[in-house]
Amino acid sequence: MSFIALTILLGGLSFYNLKNILTEELINTGKVLSESIADSVALKLAVMDIAGFQDLINNYAKIDGIQYIYITNETNELVLDTFSPQPPQDIIDAIKENQRVLTIPSLNSIEIKHGILYGSLGHVHVGMNTDLIMHHLTKTFPLVLIVITIIMALCLWLLRRVIKNVTQPLNTLTNFTKNIERYQFDISKANQHEIKKIAELNDEIGLFTKNYLSLHQELERHVEQLTEASARNSAIKKELTIAHDIQMNLLDEAPKITGSNHLTFSPYICPAKDVGGDFYDVVEKGDTVYVAIGDVSGKGVSAALVMAATLTSIRTSIDYLNDPTDIITTVNKQISKHNPNLMFVSLFFAAININTGIMDYVNAGHPSPFICSNTGITTLPSTNNPVIGIQEHQYYPSNQAQLTQNSVMIMYTDGVNEAHNEKNELFGDEAIKNVLMDLSNPSAKTCTQTLNAALDTFTNGVDPHDDITILSVKFSAKEKEIPNPLVISLNNDIDELIKLQHVTTAFSKKHQLQDKIEKSINLVLEELLSNTIFYGYQDSNPHTIFVRFLFKNNKVTIHVEDDAIPFNPLTDAPDVDTISDISDRPVGGLGVHIIKKMVDDIQYQRINEKNQLTIVKELS
After folding, report:
1. Is 136 exposed, middle or buried, given 0-12, 13-18 or 19+ CB atoms closer than 10 A?
2. How far is residue 110's CA from residue 126's CA, in Å, rounded to a whole number?
3. Cα–Cα dist 556/210, whole Å
4. What is the secondary structure of 485-523 as a DSSP string?
């Protein structure tokens, strides 16, 4: 179909060009004849002797192709013509036209005008018959069309030969490529004979085929390397999955204490990689629950290993220690000893009394938790301790706080407040506070889920750049009425001093004692009872010590009773040398001396084989 259309197009162009050539030839013939006639009649026309020229123009009119001839004078009046019987109206109208070549379609003629003596004596008009053009076209065009068809057929045959020479190698390359795909780049299974013959051609296709084979060889080696790497990555992925499962098994998904329902927990953890360095823990020991949340510097397997070591160290230390200061100081010492890469750990660690909500805590370079209570959102004051794992001999003092009824403590790692969105904006501590502020009497689960949902909305699908961990704990124990007087019993165990400290704090808050009064009472009792526990008993049997608090008449009276060996701190304690150099002073007596200075009255009695010590502290 394309061949026929192209042949018709070329035939049409040839017809058009041939017609133009014949027309031009006819016009030139007319010009020659008109010029010849003009030269012949010029002299006779000048003397107005033109009678003999009628036969001349009649003879010219008999020439093939001439349709008519007429002569006009200088005023464009008709002088001679070959028309019979008279010129048609179109000729009369044409005399007025001042054109040298004029087409008269009604007469099928092209009229050529030539001046006699440059037009001074008139003009000769020769009408050439255009039917002659069609006559010649009718005879010539079929021959031209046959020639065009033959040429087009030859071109088509040559084109097919060229295309075949080009497409055959390309088809071979295509089939070879399909075989490579079918056999998964195993070239040994494909037909290489034809492709190698093409590669031997000394042309562009041969050069392309050589490069193609070279590229395939490189690609085959690359596929082999990728296959090996994929196998290794698969093994690594499997190991990471196992490591992730082990890590998650170290963390309790639903921590719950058995001794009381006063504390409820809600954790969430999302490692940035398969394994991460964030962790949390909840350990119950007696009437104390230890809560930890931490973040190891770095990510991946190395951080996970340090995380596991830190978690193990914390749990081990809790087994034989009670005070958060002692626990974290010990953990820091253990981690620092075996930390060649100096991967530090930020950590928040708290010991919460499940009955009173009194909490002793250590913050080692970790984001401070928020406390959500009926009075609003507050930030737990930091203890300003450095991260663990760097300085082996670092000491970690603790602070104390009171969790009020139905309050929730929200702990988190810096993957939360430092999360960023697609605009690289940080979530920030203020956003966390605003999210929690909108909650009314929330549970631990509500706080964790709401904060996590707000974080998802903010990041809007951006992958986390750091591990994200949230741990919320709600204290819901009803505040116990603190009696007055308040009597407690203690075992002769130094760890019981923590219990005594909590009771002193609760008693002081109940009666709105100043902090300095509370600290003075704590220091006095700690000094007296530690002396009794360490030096007052000559056996290893358990003994009970009773402490009675009374607030009355703007003063605090404390009565201590124990069955230790007789000891009157007012008389039996050695005198204190306050004059000699400190290196020359005898050991002992300084604690009792300080106690005497801190209280307003102290009395001792020995009744029924028991030491009876009464201490009075006036309130200013």
Report:
1. middle
2. 8
3. 102
4. SEEEEEES-TTHHHHHHHHHHHHHHHTT--HHHHHHHHH
Please name every residue paired with 603 in a beta bridge, in sequence order, or none if there are none: 614
- pLDDT > 80? residue 273: no
pTM over 0.90: no
Least confident of 163-177, 208-222, 244-258, 439-453: 244-258
Phi-psi region of 588 (alpha: psi -120 to 50; beta: other; left: phi over 0): left
DSSP-derived letter for residue 441 is: S
H or E segment to which residue 59 belongs: helix 53-61
262 and 243 together in one domain: no
Q: Please give the pLDDT value at position 138.
A: 80
- Could you give the 3-state DSSP secondary structure of residue 285? strand
Report the C-alpha gap between 257 and 199 in whole angstroms: 78
Q: Report which residue type is found at 13.
A: L
> Could you tell me which of 407, 404, 365, 403 has the C-alpha nearest to residue 383?
365
Asked whether residue 433 falls in the same domain as residue 539, the answer is: no
Q: Which residue has the tokens 């016009």?
A: 27
Dist CA 526 CA 535 (whole Å): 14
Mean pLDDT within 307-331: 92
Q: In whole angstroms, how far apart are CA 454 and each of 270, 279, 466, 467?
A: 15, 21, 17, 16
* Number of alpha helices (DSSP H) and beta strands (DSSP E) in the chain: 14, 20
Residue keyed to tokens 């890590």 = 247
- CA–CA dist 120, 159 (Å, integer): 63
One-letter amino acid at 194 equals E
CA torsion angle for 495, 499, 500, 506 (degrees, to 10)? 160
Counted domains in the chain: 4
Residue 327 tokens read as 């626990």
Tokens of residue 519, six digits: 């600290």
Judge whether residue 488 has pLDDT over 70: yes
Out of 83-92, 110-119, 171-180, 477-486, least confident range: 171-180
Q: What mean pLDDT do residues 139-162 have? A: 78
**H or E, element range at 600:** none
pLDDT tens digit sequence for 198-244: 666 777 777 777 777 777 777 777 777 777 777 776 655 655 555 55
- pLDDT category at 460 given cuts 50, 70, 90 is confident
The reply to whether 185 falls in a domain is no
Choose one of 220, 250, 280: the last residue of a domain: 250
448 and 490 both lie in a single domain: no
Residue range(s) defining the domain that contains residue 323: 254-475
Q: How confident is the model at residue 583 (pLDDT cuts 50, 70, 90)?
A: very low
Residue 485 preceded by cis peptide, ω within 30: yes
Q: Label residue 190 by pLDDT band (50, 70, 90).
A: low
Co-location of 507 and 546 in the same domain: yes
Q: Is the pLDDT of residue 605 over 70?
A: yes
- Do 111 and 45 sit in the same domain of this protein? yes
Q: 340 and 458: one domain? A: yes
Residue finishing a domain among 211, 230, 250: 250
Task: Report if residue 171 sits inside a domain.
Answer: no
Q: Where are the beta strands (DSSP E) in 7-142?
A: 66-72, 78-81, 101-104, 109-116, 122-129
Residue 123 or residue 57, greater confidence: 123
294 SS3 class: strand
Q: How far apart are CA 245 and CA 387, in angstroms?
A: 27
Would you say 32 and 124 are in contact if contact means Cβ atoms under 8 Å apart? Answer: no
Structural domain contains residue 536: yes
